[in-house]
Design goal:
- The complex is a heterodimer of chains A (266) and B (90).
- Chain A is an alpha/beta fold.
- Chain A has one domain: P-loop containing nucleotide triphosphate hydrolases (Rossmann fold).
- Chain A has helices at residues 17-30, 47-51, 61-65, 71-74, 100-113, 127-134, 147-162, 177-181, 188-195, 208-215, 226-238, 248-265; strands at 4-9, 35-39, 76-77, 84-87, 116-120, 138-143, 168-175, 198-204.
- Chain A has an eight-stranded mixed sheet, sandwiched between helices.
- The N and C termini of chain A lie far apart (64 Å).
- The mean pLDDT of chain A is 92.
- Chain B has three helices and four strands; from the N terminus they run αααββββ.
- In chain B, the strands form two sheets. Chain B has a two-stranded antiparallel sheet.
- The longest helix of chain B is centred in the N-terminal third of the chain and has 18 residues, at 16-33.
- Chain B starts with a helix and ends in a 6-residue tail after the last strand.
- The chains are: A alpha/beta (266), B alpha+beta (90).
């Protein structure tokens, strides 16, 4: 028995994997689950800064596989989310410092200690991605409503299938309802049509994300943020709850109305 | 401004998201079948040369595409016929 390992992946870089890992991790920990978040992006460590834990990193993933420390020693407990622990990546190393087998060993060790192990995958389809995905039970594929990101998501879904990782769902990040109304952004249905994959989250574009990352305080800790609610909803769906989709449509109506008012005004 | 209005009312040209969706569909099919546009162009020329032995066709109106239905990809083409060539009936 033990916990469930979830890889957060995308293919394309910059679509929000690390932000998703940090926020879904904290949201799960707020539901009283014990959570470990693992930064598998060796050489480009970032999960620590997004979580605000960069000053407390002592040991890392590579230290564990090289025997310099134990798994427990390398884990950093979050100050505010006390059920959340970070396993940082090494910064001064490259992706070949860890093998698939070593990654599986570390992840299964963590699964004994935690309810959920979230693995933040590096961008790309090479060894780093494979290492991150290989120990996972479930995959969350993050995309944005842009052609490049959706195409890469399709590729990643194909690779996950070929690795036997059939349990995967999609998170569509950075939706801009006002652009969807104008017909200038792929909407949720378009993306689902193209990728034919189960949906687990829709997250609106939110400038607060940049502010929260500046501070190192994940946005789920801010009660008023719509993006924060979206990440909490993803955590609830992971826990098996049937959560209605956020009503971006109401905002769309407002957007449309606002736009008509703008037009009359000019 | 009027372009936006036309898009919202569904008249006029395609919206950029429709263009994006069409382009993505085609790109993903090519990605999966490994048939490059160059090979498709060659297939088109070969089909024309075979058909032309029997039929007079409107070459410029031939549309040949790859379409995805579920997990299978089909080669779909529509070839407008002008007339049957003399002596081709037998």
């Amino acid at each position: 028995m033990g916990g469930i390992a979830i890889v957060i992946t995308s293919g394309k870089g910059g679509v929000g994997k690390t932000t998703t890992t940090a926020n879904v991790g904290i949201a799960l920990s707020m539901k009283n689950k014990r959570v470990a978040v693992v930064d598998a992006d060796i050489g480009l460590r970032n999960l620590d800064v997004v979580l605000g834990l960069e000053n407390r990193v002592v040991y890392n993933l590579v230290d564990i596989v090289e025997g310099a420390c134990g798994v427990k020693q390398a884990l950093i407990r979050h100050k505010r989310a006390e059920n959340l622990y970070l396993l940082p990546a090494a910064q001064a190393r490259t992706k070949d410092a860890v093998t698939s087998e070593q990654m599986v060993t570390v992840v299964s060790e963590l699964k004994k200690m935690f309810d959920f192990v979230l693995i933040d995958s590096p961008a790309g389809i090479e060894a780093g991605f494979r290492n991150a995905a290989t120990g996972a039970d479930i995959a969350l594929v993050v995309t944005t409503p842009e052609v490049s990101a959706v195409r890469d998501a399709d590729r990643i879904i194909g690779l996950l299938d070929s690795m036997g990782k059939k349990e995967h769902s999609l998170i569509i990040n950075r939706i801009r309802p006002e652009m969807v109304v104008e017909g200038n952004m792929l909407d949720v249905r378009d993306v689902i049509d193209i990728l034919s994959i189960k949906l687990i989250g829709i997250v609106p574009e939110d400038p607060e994300i940049i502010i929260s990352t500046n501070k190192g305080e994940p946005i789920v800790m801010d009660d008023n943020s719509l993006a924060g609610k979206a990440f909490i909803n993803i955590a609830r769906r992971i826990l098996g709850e049937n959560v209605p989709w956020l009503k971006l449509e109401e905002r769309r109506k407002k957007g449309l109305f606002g736009w008509i008012k703008d037009m009359w005004g000019k | 401004m009027f372009k936006k209005l036309r898009t919202m009312l569904g008249i006029g040209g395609k919206s950029s998201k429709e263009i994006a969706k069409d382009r993505l569909r085609v790109a993903l099919v090519y990605d999966k079948t490994d048939i490059s546009p160059k090979i498709l162009e060659e297939i088109r020329a070969e089909i024309i040369s075979v058909i032309s032995k029997r039929l007079v066709i409107k070459e410029e109106n031939i549309d040949i595409t790859l379409e995805r239905e579920g997990s299978t990809v089909a080669l779909v083409t529509s070839i407008p016929i002008v007339k049957v060539k003399r002596g081709a009936e037998n």
